[in-house]
Amino acid sequence: xxxxxxxxxxxxVRLKWDPSPLGESPRHLDIVAATYTADDPYGEPDYIVxxxxxSPDGTINMNRHSKTGMGFGFVExxxxxxxxxxxxxxxxxxxxxxxQEPDPRTFGDMSNAGILIVEGYRELLVEDxxxxxxxxxxxxxxxxxxxxxxWRMHPMVRGSDNDPAGFMTEMGSVRHA
Length: 177
What we know:
mainly beta
């Protein structure tokens, strides 16, 4: 399963947001990741990892999950172990969705929301969702396996106003520009 070329190893996606003000319904955001095989890198995801799942081989996991944003710093964390991901995978797309129950919300409705993607101490992406303030979901990045077998990240911040289930199936259909 290990790749032979240089590239990304273990990556963490960290998400933060402020809880709702007193009297409002909870604000609930989630990190999601979709995997795509080399046979169909822009088709249907092979599997999707989200708030209540993990990858079958344990290479993509939710390490921390929040339904309210309560806590200090990054309250939701997903780890992706690209150095262990099976060779049949060529692409992984990561995004964030906002639950729309009971109240519809966009990223513009969130306060102090942000994402940090890191490999060790190296920051790969820092995003505050300003560019997608009117969206209810967004892709963040795509990770592609190169010719040497190593993984590379391409920022791909693109907003969507699809519901969480619809977004998870559509988020990988867009090619990196």
